[in-house]
Amino acid sequence: MATVARTGIEGGRLWLALGVAVTAMVAIILAMDSGVEGVRLAVRATARTSFALFLTAFTASSLVQLWPGTMTRWILRNRRWFGLGFAWSHFLHLLMILWLFGNYAGQVPAPPMATIAGGSLAYVFIAAMAATSFDGAVRWMGPKNWQRLHKVGVWYVWIVFMTSYGKRAMTMPEYILPVILLIIAAGLRFAWKHARATA
Predict the structure, then answer these.
(1) SS3 letters for 139-186?
(2) I want to staple 87 with a disulfide (CB 3.0 to 4.6 A). Which of 9, 31, 130, 190 is the partner?
(3) Which pTM does this prediction carry?
(4) How far apart are CA 168 and CA 177, in angstroms?
């Protein structure tokens, strides 16, 4: 990411670079194996890119306030585009899930209804936040309503990630690190708010 910052990639060009990279990753995985295991790998891979992009956007304000510097200021300037990159990555994640259960329903267990309902609501929030990630939306909705939508939306997505990874971490140690990162990310946001309130 530091290399990207030094090259001066900003705004829409950054979003395009992120979108192309994630799309190419999925295409390569499916070109190597378009069967059930390949699609499963694509589901996991897009979940991880979505997680990384979400955490970057989620912590952007906190990082620049707590550790101001060239890198953190670049992340904050491009928070919108990291968020849109997350939305695209998670859209591909949804396509891979639909492909998996649409074509290999007999080979993979169906998710619980609670998971489907919670995930569907997350996608509603992601779509709403992506659609309102532009200056015109702030004027149309009003700053307070815009802030409410994005605040509730990002925290709901955080809860979905925490719930999903938290359950897996109980039996699969590789999910412990994502849980720790989610806790740190939330802690950074609370620390930033506390520092701002006491300033």
Answers:
(1) HHHCHHHHHHHHHHHHHHHHHHHHHHHHHHHCCCHHHHHHHHHHHHHH
(2) 130
(3) 0.90
(4) 11
